[in-house]
Each structure stands twice: as structure tokens, then as C-alpha cells.
Design goal:
homotetramer, mainly alpha, Methane Monooxygenase Hydroxylase, Chain G, domain 1, Translin (chains A, B, C, D)
Chain lengths: ~240, ~240, ~240, ~240
């Protein structure tokens, strides 16, 4: 290492400073971007909290159309917030997944709520493309990550057993059958996926408990003969519940 | 439940199946991409293990040029592997950070080894752009993440106290002074950065222990007068400190 | 430290190298064997996932013969995979239990599925020798470990409460009685075993919850007089359920 | 439930009982075998505790030949115990690895102690075949598992830093150099192995701390010039220590 002395480390030292000065800017920009993303994510979270509060009223058997009416005003707020998010991400092309962790959990909640609303309204699963539509997202520039969609749907599933219990309590004895059919199909569809041992897999594994709980409620209703009359006539989609 | 069969929610049901069929393809493609990335990462890991084995010989006072000569043959292998990695990532534009976790720890090790080699050879810090050059990376398409570079440099710093101890043991009493100067500058440069509470911050916090250990060795050497002669002539850089 | 080079502990040093060179080969062979075992185990896992998806249809009251027909095509695949596994293990005689951990959990799942199918078909427990037969195993060379068989049977038991609930829901009020008889006998048989405090013991402890749940369903059915008429005539094996 | 008695699924039921009766015998035999293995393992453990107590005296600078003399009487006990172990395992051919967990940790300790003794006596590494020789094992029937040997050697390495410190305290300033040479070679040999992420890998990772600690002690001795005189004359192997 004797030759170390001979070399004039003057220039290396200033190169070093220059490099770290660049890094400082880079990290600060990145941090400020993250801050802006987090700020929007917090606003999204705040809107989803509001939506969830409203939606909870369905457990108290409030008429679904009334509940959904209230909630729908919030959807445009969500749309606007995702528009802002997409705008921020447009500033750093190719870095969607770099900051993904900063908004994904909020997005999953959004999916679960939109999915639950859609199911209440139609009895069907809200599709991935439909979520993007509602949030004004374009896959090509700022899309909805598929795993986020799937995790959101699992969260939605977690809400269903409670809904079924409360509907039966309120006298809607046909609800368990319909939810069971929906959850069974959804569960079967998920089973087609070859999931890694990650969060999504864990959330999906939880779905089977929702399924079983709904089966148990359906069992309770059936064994008491509560669904005996009218099974054939009531069968007109889930709107009949409210 | 016989009526379940009779009910024709056929169109939603088949849309559902279609969607999950698409997801299955998507997840499988993503998984296979990840597998290919992991395979290359494992090869990188295997080359770095080889390089590290060679580099360890400097702790036994083997001549640096001899050690580096052996190692350099491996660098072209690394270059080729990163070329393959870049090729795989090119297939999925904008998803660098989606799979980043699958190669980043191996890349940090590569940085630490290249950095150590460069320091052994020149006494200077290997710059970010120099690492990219050596690995044949282009920032525009598949660059070296700055945090990976910085963490790799922290790992390199961890190697220095041991090197200093072994050099002094072998009679090189001037080594601590040089390493101390290098580490002090590096530590000061890092301090300019405003680090978040993450892995990089933790690794950087560890650097101060390297610095202290080298200071202690320098102290041991100085207090025993082992650097006494020649100090005045050799002192062309670090003078301010001692 | 220059004298280290000069010293000639050549012979011990080269013996050392030779030994570790042998170890390297040994560990690499062992690792490659393990890789091959894991690859087959993953294929087994993939087939069991398919089988399980099919079997789940019995919870929706699909006719048992139809469900089993679909599944049986997969059994020959399993047989072929276990044949491959046995072939790999034949390469390293006496090391069945060395690699046992690499396929045992998949094998337990296979036992649980075969057991469930057999029970659906006959109402009886699938014996250890019958599992070996179906999988083409020979105890003398690559047999089914008894604890794996027993744990698999415990997993099968976990499926029964759900089955009973869904059968009752579908109007098969005689199912609980039959399942209860089966589970009671099975539980009593397990109780004869002196189990250590290990996984098998834990899984067996869980079986009592299955038993209790089935007892409760049987109670629900009895207390409502749902099994009152025709008990004597319906008693023709489990096929009569659907 | 009276009709349960009337039902005659007698033949399946008695087959069931027969099978579980067989299992009971099987599990009891296996348990009793395990008990006998554990009993021998406990005796081995007790002898190793005795040996270790004796060996600890080398940290107090007792003459090595005296210490080893005391210990050697115990080796024949170990040999006898391993003979008994081999005898028990001979009763159940092909099940070495089934019960391996019941004696492996004790065996690793035996390796570490024999290895330490051998190193104290000769300065060299005790080979795998030498351990088998000393314990009267034959690879063909009841050999020493290679990973157990390697883990035992790692444990031995953990003892060396303490030994070096105490030897230097007692005035043997040449000890660090010899131990460092030994550990460096051993560490390099281990690095040739491609270790999985398991216990052995973890133990090996610990060896580098032993190496560094010995380097530090060597550094302390060198920097004080304590090894200055006589380096050339003392260099006659490790026997010169005592």
C-alpha cells in the first residue's frame, strides 16, 4: 500500500463529497416524494374510515339503497385522491413498485369496501377492471396491482359472516344461502391460483373460516325450517334482502 | 339447495372464472420471472463467496496485487450475471422495484467486495458510477440502486478494523493512520445524508464502531511510538488529525 | 508472519484439505438428493391441491360417485410420484429417515385425502396397508411411516364436522349419526395408543373438537325430531345420504 | 343411539381395532428403543461433562500431558457407550436417522472434546476417521454423521479464543500465532463447503468471531513486542507450550 502516499487523494476526496452531495439530493427528493405519497395515502385512509362507518349500518339492517346513497358521495373523493397519487407517481416513471408499500394497504381497504358495496347492490363480485374504472385508474400508467385487488377481496370476505348473522337476526332467512353460494364460488376461484407463501396466501387461508361460519349459519337456519316456505319465489338476487 | 344449480347467474360467474384464469397466468408468469431472477441471484452469491474467500487472504498479509489478480477473473463473471439480470428485467419494464428484494442483498455484497478491492488497490472509495461501470450497468435501464450502493459500502467498512489489526500485527504500523483517514472521511460524507429509520440507517450506525476500533488501534500504535520515525515525512493528508 | 509460510505442516494440512474436499462432495450429493426429493414433493403437493379442490364439492352436496370419479384419475399420478420418490431413496439405503422431513407433510395430506375418499365411499377407515397399496408402496423398501398415517387420519377427521353440517343443511339428517359412530370408534382406537408429547399427540388432541362438534349436530337433529322416521330403513351405508 | 349397537359393521370395526393394536405395539417398541437410546445418551453426556471439567484445567495452565492423562481414562468409557448405542441401533436396521436426534447433540460434544484434546497434543485437526477410530465406530454400520463431526469441530473452535487469552496471561506469547494459523486454515477449509441455511451454517458463521478474537490477541502480543525474541527458535509445534 506504499503507493497510496504517492497518489494525490485531493481529487478523490472532492469526488467523494460531490457524490454524497448528489446522494443527499437524491435521498431528499425521494423522501419528499414519499412524504407526498404518504399524505395522500392518509387522506385515502381517512375517506375509507368514513365509508366503512356508513357501511357498518347494513349490519343494523338499514335499507341497502339508503346506505349506499350516503357512501357514494365519498367515491368521487377517492377517485380524486387516486388521481393525485397517479400524478405524483408520474413524476418518477418506473418507480411505482419502489413506493408501492406506501399506499398499498390503504388501496386494499378501498378494494374491500368497493367490493362489499358492489356485492350488496348486485350480489356479484366487483371485477378488477371495475375497481380501476371506479377509481379512474388506467392500467397503462397507474394501475391497481393484482395482489392488492385479491387481498382487498379477502378482506371483503371477512365482512360477510357478520353480515349474514345480522341479516338472519333481522329475519332475512334467505341471506345465508345466497352468501354461501357467493363465497363458495369465490373460494373455488381463488383455489385456481397457485399462491406463494406470502400475505395473499395467508389472507386467502382465512377465507375458509368465513366460508365455514356462513355454512354454520345456513345450517342453523335450515335445521329450524326457517327457509322452508318461499325458497322458490324469493330467489331473485340479493336486492330482496332489504 | 337444488335450486342453486337451477339459478343462472351464468354471466357473472363466467366473468369471475375468466378473471381468475387471467390472474392465474399473471401470477404464474410473475412467479417464473422471480424464479429466474432468484437463480441468477444465487449464482451471483456463489461468485461473491469465491471472491470473498480470496480476499480473506489479505488478512494473512498476502501481497495485495497477487490477491487482486486472482479475484479479477471473477469480476467478468459478475458482469455477465448482471447482464443476464438486466435482460430478465427488461422483459417487464417498470417493475425493477417489484423484484428488487430478490437480488438486492446479493448486490450489496458485490458492492462491498468491489469497494474493498478498489480501496486495497487505490486507498480511495469506489464511486457509484464506477461500480456500474465494472458491472456493465446502465442507470437508464438497469442501474444500481443508491441505497444498495450505500449499504454495500457500510459492509465494506465492517471489514476494515480487522484488516488494520492484522496489518499492524504483520508490522505495517502506518496502516491505521491511512484507514482512519479514509473511514473518517467516509463517515463524515455519510453524515451529510438525512437517513430514514431503515436498514441503511442501521448499517451506517454500525460504521461508527468500525471507526472507533480503528481509532483505538491507531492509538495503540502511536502511544508505543511505533509510528515515531518517518511521521513527519509521511504525513501528507492526515496531518490535522494526529 | 513470514515464517508461517516457511513451516511445513504440509502433511496434516493436505489431509485437512482432502477431508474437506470429500465433505464438499458429500454435502453436494446430499443437497442434490434433497433437491430431487423436494421437487417430487412439490409435485405431490400440487396433485393434492387438485384433489382437494374436487373433494370440496361434496360440501355442496354433489353426488359422491361423481366427485370420486373425477378424483380417481389423480390417484395414479400420486402413485407414479411416490414411485419416483422410492426410486430416489433407493439410491441411499438406510437414509429414509434422514430425508423424511422433506416429504412427510405432503404424505400426510395424501393420507388425509385418500382416507376421506375411502370414507365417503365405504363409511370405513382406510387402513395403513390400504394406503400403501393405493400408492404402490412396499413397507420393506419405501413404506408409509405409521405416524404419518396417523397424522393424516387426524387431518381427515378435521374435515368431518364441516361435512356433517353441510349434509344436514342439504337434508341428510342421518349423516350425523353415522359420522358420530365413525368418529367415536376412531377416537377410541386412537386412545389405545400411548402417544408422546409430539405433533401426533397435538393433532389427536384436536380430534376431540371434531367429535364434539359432530355430537352437537347430532343433538340438534335429534332434539328437533328430524331423524325420527325411517332410521331403520335408511341404514344402508353412506351412499344413501345424497 | 341404541341402534348403533345393533349395526354390524363388525368386520371393518375389528380390522380397525387390530390395526390400532398393531400400532400400539409398534409405538411402544419404538418408544422403548428411544428410551434405551436416551439412557445411553445421558451416560455419554455425563462422561463428557467429566472430560470437560478436566480439560478446563488447561485454561489454568496445567501441563497438557498431565491433563490429557487424566482424561484418557474416560475415552474408553465413551467407546463402550457408543458400542452399546451401535448395538441398540443394530436392532432396527435403516433407522439410524429416525433416532438420530436422540444422540446427536451429545455426539457433537464428544467430537468437540476429542478434537480439542487432539489439538492440544498435536496442534492438528482431528479427522473424521480418527474420531470414528477412537470411538470404535464403523461407518458401514454405525458411523459418525458428517454434519455432527463438523458441528463438533465448530464447538471446539469456540474454545480456542479463551485458551489463547489464558495462555498469554500465563506467559506463552507464541500461542496466539499458532492458534491463528490453525483457525485460519480450518476456517478456509470450512469455506470450501457449500452450507445450507441450517444449524451447521450458523455454527460455522460463529467461527469467524473466534478467528477475529484470536487475531486481536495476536495483535496485542505483537504490538507490545512480546513475541520479538525467539520467534525463530520456538517454532517447533504446539507441544512447546506446556
Amino acid at each position: 500500500m506504499a503507493d497510496l502516499e504517492a497518489k494525490p487523494p485531493l481529487s478523490p476526496s472532492s469526488t467523494l463529497e460531490k457524490q454524497f452531495e448528489d446522494f443527499r439530493h437524491h435521498l431528499e427528493e425521494s423522501e419528499s416524494l414519499r412524504e407526498r405519497i404518504r399524505a395522500v395515502a392518509r387522506e385515502i385512509e381517512s375517506v375509507t374510515r368514513l365509508i366503512y362507518s356508513c357501511l357498518l349500518l347494513v349490519h343494523q339492517s338499514r335499507p341497502i339503497p339508503e346506505v349506499l346513497e350516503k357512501v357514494k358521495a365519498q367515491i368521487s373523493k377517492l377517485k380524486e385522491l387516486f388521481h393525485r397519487l397517479a400524478g405524483i407517481l408520474r413524476e418518477c416513471p418506473g418507480q411505482y413498485y419502489r413506493y408501492h408499500g406506501d399506499w398499498r394497504s390503504e388501496t386494499q381497504t378501498v378494494v374491500s369496501l368497493l367490493g362489499f358495496m358492489h356485492w350488496l347492490e348486485t350480489g356479484n363480485l366487483l371485477m378488477h377492471t371495475q375497481v380501476e374504472e371506479r377509481l379512474g385508474l388506467k392500467t397503462s400508467e397507474f394501475g391497481l396491482d393484482i395482489e392488492d385487488y385479491l387481498i382487498g377481496i379477502c378482506f371483503m370476505s371477512n365482512e360477510l359472516p357478520r353480515y349474514v348473522v345480522n341479516q338472519v337476526t333481522a329475519g332475512d332467512y334467505d341471506c345465508p344461502r345466497k352468501v354461501l353460494k357467493f363465497l363458495t364460488d369465490l373460494h373455488a376461484a381463488f383455489r385456481m391460483l397457485n399462491l406463494r407463501n406470502d400475505l395473499l396466501r395467508k389472507k386467502f387461508d382465512g377465507m375458509k373460516y368465513d366460508l365455514r361460519r356462513v355454512e354454520e349459519v345456513y345450517y342453523d337456519v335450515k335445521i329450524r325450517g326457517l327457509t322452508a316456505n318461499g325458497d322458490s319465489t324469493r330467489d331473485l338476487g340479493i336486492q330482496g334482502q332489504s
